[in-house]
Design brief:
The structure holds 2 protein chains of 2 kinds. Chain A is of the alpha+beta class. Chain A has 9 helices and 10 strands. The termini of chain A are far apart. Helices cover about 70% and strands about 0% of the residues of chain B. Chain B has 7 helices and no strands. The chains are: A alpha+beta, B mainly alpha.
């Protein structure tokens, strides 16, 4: 077995004083790398990192073309009403998407008269779900006037969504992990606010009312 | 080993760290390194590396990118080597503090993965996340017991008169020398 017999500390105290700085330097290095990787300790998940890397608010949103209920291709970043509250989902999602969509009626109710005159709510599928299937979902939710459930027209929307701040990871087993944030877009195609899945419907409605 | 989150967190990361540690034991020099006073340099590097690879974003990156996966292997091997060269020169108090911190981190990570309802790692599933949390919970119990046993054994070894022992425990020797004038001279216990 090895036997440690001490260090150079006693042999050369001034040199050892310099060596004593090494742990500090290593510590600074560790903190610097962690700080860089997490965007200043603000992004610990890939989702939050994607959101931060998309840029500060307000920022220009990429074109988000979707197939409307009439079959027409519409850009979610333009048109009327002046504000759109956008979320992304896929129809066969087993858990997260139904939960995220389940709070939309509460947000709509909390927004009151702002929907659909000032705000339109859009739930956009990025998984090639058929318009018929999504229309059935819309009917199942009670045919809300200010809430559109539609598929994105782009067959590979991952890059556009990433520029918006949405991460989409397709797993080998068919599941798709993705950001569940809600994005408020204005009439100039800018992202004005982003709401996390943890925000309550009342808080989201209050923030939107303050912006629109 | 990176197909599921439980395997990644509970097997993959500890396995590479353990391999590095074993390699470090084999490579260890017979002199304490001057750049590693009290084992702090190696300890900080090891804890920093582990912290980095425990970040969900890093886990995703390692699963999605072969380059990041190779970086993980190399980094954890180096962290294991650094830990192996640091542990023998760390004072007992520091070793105890780090061990308690490690055990509490495993327990906390278990609590986070078990109870957080949103998906933290984008490459795994919520079911795997909760399974990982439960495994970490379970693992934390034997780890705490092992730490207690190890701590008590080390305390018993550090009786007065102890010098550098057969396991190369210089810290124990230093502690024994420091405490010698304050304690009774008694038989050395094993």
């Amino acid at each position: 077995m090895d036997v440690l017999v001490g260090s150079d500390r006693s042999a050369n105290p001034s040199r050892q004083a310099l060596w004593n700085l090494v742990p500090l330097l290593v510590g600074f290095g560790v903190v610097a790398i962690l700080g860089w990787w997490t965007h200043g300790l603000n992004a610990f998940t890939s989702y939050s990192a994607t959101l931060i890397e998309a840029g500060p608010l307000p920022r220009r949103a990429p074109p988000l073309r979707f197939i409307d209920t009439t079959g027409e291709i519409v850009d979610a970043t333009r048109g009327e009403p002046p504000y759109r509250l956008v979320q992304f989902f896929y129809a066969r999602c087993p858990d997260a998407c139904p939960l995220a969509m389940g709070r939309i009626p509460r947000i709509e109710a909390a927004l009151g008269d702002l929907v659909p005159t000032r705000v339109r709510i859009l739930s956009l599928s990025f998984d090639h779900d058929s318009p018929e299937l999504l229309r059935e979902m819309w009917i199942a939710h009670g045919r809300p006037a200010g809430w559109t459930i539609a598929p994105l027209a782009d067959s590979h929307p991952e890059e556009s969504l990433r520029r918006l701040g949405v991460l989409v990871i397709r797993r080998d087993d068919g599941l798709i992990n993705h950001s569940l944030d809600l994005f408020l877009l204005d009439s100039e195609g800018r992202v004005r606010a982003v709401f996390s899945p943890d925000d309550t419907a009342a808080a989201i409605a209050s923030a939107i009312a303050g912006l629109v | 080993m990176i197909g599921t989150q439980p395997r990644f967190v509970v097997l993959h990361i500890p396995a590479w760290l353990a391999l590095g540690y074993l390699a470090g034991l084999r490579l260890r020099t017979t002199r304490a390194m001057p750049w590693n006073p009290l084992g702090l340099s190696g300890l900080v590097f090891c804890l920093g590396s582990l912290s980095f690879w425990m970040i969900p974003r890093s886990v995703d990156c390692a699963v999605l990118s072969p380059w990041a996966d190779q970086l993980l292997h190399a980094n954890l091997l180096a962290a294991g080597v650094a830990l192996a060269s640091s542990v023998p020169v760390m004072p007992f108090v520091l070793r105890a503090a780090v061990s308690i911190y490690g055990a509490s981190m495993i327990f906390s990570l278990g609590a986070l993965y078990t109870h957080y309802s949103a998906l933290l790692c984008g490459t795994f599933t919520l079911a795997q996340q909760k399974q990982t949390g439960r495994l970490l919970y379970i693992l934390s119990v034997p780890i705490v017991i092992a730490l207690l046993a190890s701590g008590l054994r080390t305390l018993a070894r550090q009786r007065p008169g102890t010098v550098a022992n057969e396991t190369g425990d210089a810290a124990g020797a230093q502690a024994g020398q420091r405490d010698a004038p304050l304690a009774e001279n008694g038989p050395r216990q094993r």
